[in-house]
Design goal:
About 35% of the residues lie in helices and about 30% in strands. The protein is an alpha+beta fold. The chain has a domain of about 170 residues: Thrombin, subunit H (Beta Barrel), CATH 2.40.10.340. The strands form 2 sheets. A 6-stranded antiparallel β-barrel has the order 2-3-6-5-4-13. A 6-stranded antiparallel barrel has the order 7-8-9-12-11-10. Helix 2 crosses helix 3. The termini are far apart. The relative contact order is 0.11.
């Protein structure tokens, strides 16, 4: 306390100067409108800048707490979402019309396992016999053809991908309507081969290749790919055509199983025709 009194006594002239200066400023800004307005504008902008800086600094140091809170909230919402529960229901899209008879039923599914680097690739989806999936049903995605259902269990199905050396998909050139067959040589997951297209067909790079109505597994004109290379083999009358596949197999997630309600009737008719031909 004694030191404080001595300090004030030693510098009392300076403190008196500050007091008179402060009093003079009060009088100046209190009784002069221009100076008062200028002072208020200056202090408002300065205080706003200070508060913004303080809020930014405080917000930065609170990011971790905020992030932890959001993660907890996301975990809670994910726990309560439908994806956290097994769905026993069947999601189907059907079209009913008095002029047209329903032919195709689409069952939505999710890819749970997928391979693209093997010579014979398969895809596992989370729908099976319980959901109405049957063997040899077609599988498509929003971008195009995916493959054929190969094995079915009650709750899962194994799909033979287009990227399978044993796969053969009926196709046609959209521009001309000429049919061929899509196979895969196992070399590149982005490209497939279109064969059985006769050399008299006017094909060109850029032509679209789509599914054909002759296939019992897919609806007509589901996209398959685009022609990027055409080779003429002198030893045969067919082109060797390479297509760029539309389906993004490396990031495939959402697919649809296509149920052709007329498939059994078509197969029965074709089998009967073959039997009659064999008897002749």
């Amino acid at each position: 306390m004694k030191n404080l009194v001595f300090f004030i006594y030693k510098y009392y002239v300076f403190f008196m100067f500050l007091a008179f200066e402060f009093f003079a400023l009060i009088v100046l800004f209190r009784f002069n409108n221009y100076q008062q307005a200028s002072f208020l504008n200056y202090t408002s902008s300065t205080s706003s800048a200070i508060f913004n800086t303080m809020n930014s600094t405080t917000g930065y140091f609170n990011l971790k707490t905020l992030n932890d809170s959001l993660q907890l909230e996301n975990a809670r919402l994910r726990t309560q979402s439908l994806q956290s529960f097994y769905q026993n229901g069947i999601t189907k899209t059907e079209i009913n019309d008095t002029l047209f008879k329903q032919q195709y039923v689409y069952i939505s599914a999710q890819v749970v396992n997928n391979s693209i680097s093997k010579r014979n690739n398969f895809i596992t989806i989370d729908k099976g016999a319980f959901h109405g999936v049957k063997r040899f049903d077609g599988v498509i995605c929003p971008d195009g053809v995916v493959g054929i259902v190969w094995q079915v269990t009650p709750y899962y199905s194994l799909v033979q991908s287009v990227l399978n050396s044993k796969s053969s998909t009926g196709a046609k050139i959209k521009k001309t309507g000429d049919i061929g067959s899509i196979t895969w040589d196992g070399s590149n997951s982005l490209f497939a081969q279109l064969s059985k297209v006769n050399t008299y067909v006017p094909v060109a790079v850029g032509d679209e290749v789509v599914s054909t109505a002759q296939s019992a597994s897919y609806p007509e004109e589901i996209p398959i790919g685009k022609i990027v290379k055409i080779d003429r083999n002198p030893e045969k009358n067919d082109y060797d055509i390479t297509i760029l596949i539309h389906t993004p197999f490396s990031r495939l997630k959402n697919v649809y199983v296509v149920r052709n309600l007329f498939k059994e009737s078509q197969h029965a008719a074709e089998t009967k025709a073959l039997e009659e031909e064999a008897k002749q």
